[in-house]
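Fig. S4 source data, part A: sequence.
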Amino acid sequence: MKKLLCAVLTALLVAGSAFGQQTESPKNPTKNKPPATPQSQEKPAETTPKPEATPEQKPAIRETSGDKDKDKDKEEHFDMTEVPPVVTHHQITVDGKALRYTATAGRLPIKRGDGKIEAEMFFVAYTLDGQDAAKRPVTFAFNGGPGSASIWLHMGALGPRRVVLQADGFMPPAPYRMEDNPYTLLDKSDLVLIDAIGTGYSRAADSELMKKFWGVKGDIEAFSEFVRMYISRNERWASPLFILGESYGTTRAAGIAGYLADQGISFNGITLLSTVLNFETLEDNFTNDQPYVSLVPSFTSIAGYHHKLAPDLAQDMNKARQEAEQWASTEYAQALDKGDALTAQERQKVIDQLARFTGLSKEVIDQANLRIDVRKFTHYLLIDQKVRVGRLDGRYTGPDPSGLLDTQFYDPTGSATQPPFTSVFNNYVRTELNYKVDMPYYVRAQGIGFDKWDWGSAIRGFPDTASAMRQAIVKNPYLKVLVMEGYYDLATPYYAANYTVDHLNLPPKYRENISYATYDSGHMVYLPMDGLKKMKADQAAFMTKSIQ
C-alpha cells in the first residue's frame, strides 16, 4: 500500500502550496461588489494562535491542548456557522460576444441526519445571466489528489479567468498575472468548482470528523451531498447535469455517478480527465505487472519528445505509439507473465525492444529486471544531461534539488506550476470575487497525510470505482462519458485508462456512449494554449451530443 500512496501523491504535486504575492493589478471586469459581506466580517472562534502565525495566516479555528500531553497534536475546531455566500457580477468577451455572469463564492454545509453541520465545502459558481435555468447545463468540476484543491481546473481550464503561462504551458517569470480565459466553458455551461474537505476553504468541524471524509467512501458521499444540496438550493433539478473530474477527481466522479444513480440524480455526461478508476493499472507488485505494460506507450511519447528514439520511430510518433501499444500488450506482457521462467534468449529480446521503445540503456533495463517504473524512467531518460523529466508532464525537465544521485524523487512539473496558480488564485478570490477570510486557502491538504486516507476496497485488492461507473452507465442508457488523456502523463497513463474502460464489461450499445480525446500534453492537458483550445472544443461538442 505504501507504493500506492506514493503513486497517488504524485498526482497531487499539481496541488503544491508555494504562496506568492501578485503585484500586478488584475484586469477588473464590470462588477458590483457588495459593500460588506458576512465573509468579510467573519470572526474566528476563540483562538490560541500559533506564535509564528501572522494575522493573515490565522485560520478561523479554536485549538485546545489534549490530556496534558505535550506531545499530542492540538485538536482544531473549525467554525461551522453557516453564512450567505458572496455574490459579484462580471463581464468578459468570448468569441466576440459579451458574457455577463454572476460569480458566487461560499461554503455549503454537509449535515448529518439531525441537521448538525459536520463540514462545509467551499465552492465558486459561475452562472450566465439571463438564462433559462431549466435548459442551462450545470457542470460540477473538481481536481483530485486526494488532497488537492480545484484551482487547477478553475484557473487553468474552465473558469472565466485564467493564469497566464507561456504558450507551451511552461512557467513564466514572476510576478504572475491572470487574464480573461478565451476558452472558458462558461458560454456552454454554468460552472461549479468544488474543493474537497481539507482543501481550499473546505473544513470539517474537527479532526475527528475529518476522518469521516478522508477516504474513498466519505469523500464520495460528501461530494454527492454537495451536488444534491446545490441543485436543491439553486433550483437546478431540471437542468442538464455534468461532472468533470481530473486525476483522483475521476475516481471520485465515477463514485459520485454510481452513488447518486440510486438517489434519483442522473447525469447527462461525465468527463474523465487524466483517468484512474482502478488502481490495479497503477500499482505494481510481484504478481501484478499491468502497470509496466500500461506505461510503455507513454514512455515512447516522452522519449520521442526529448529526441531519444531511433529515427525510424521518431519520424512518425502516432505510428510509434501504436507500435508500442501493440508490443507492450502482446510480447512484453507475455514475457512478464513468465516471470523467472523466461529464457535468456527471450529476456534479451525484451531488453532490446524495451530499449528501443523507451530510449533507455539496455543496462538499466537489465538491472531493473525488465520492469521500468516511473521513478526509474524519469531519472534515467536524460541522465546524460543530468536532469530529470516530469511525471505529471514528461515535457518538463529540471535538475534534482539535492543532486543527481541524492534526490529520491522529484517532479519538475510541480515546481513550474505551483507558484503561478497559488499566487494568482489567492489574489483573485479576494480582489475580484470579494471573498475575504483570515483562514488560509489550502492548495494542498495540510497535516492529514496519505497514510490516513481510507482506501476502502483496497482491503479486497486495489481501490476501484470502475464498478460504480459501470453501474451508473447501465442504469442510465443515455449517460455519455468522455475520456480525456495526455500522451506525456505518467501519473495516469493513457493506456492504463484505456485498459480500464475496455474492462468495464459493457454491451456494445453502452460502449457507444464512451468517447476519447487525446492531447500532446501531460496530466493537465490544458496547460499549453493549444491543449486548452482543444479541450474546450472537445468538451463543448461532448456536451452538445449529451443533451440532444
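Fig. S4 source data, part B ends here. The first strand starts at residue 61 and ends at 64.
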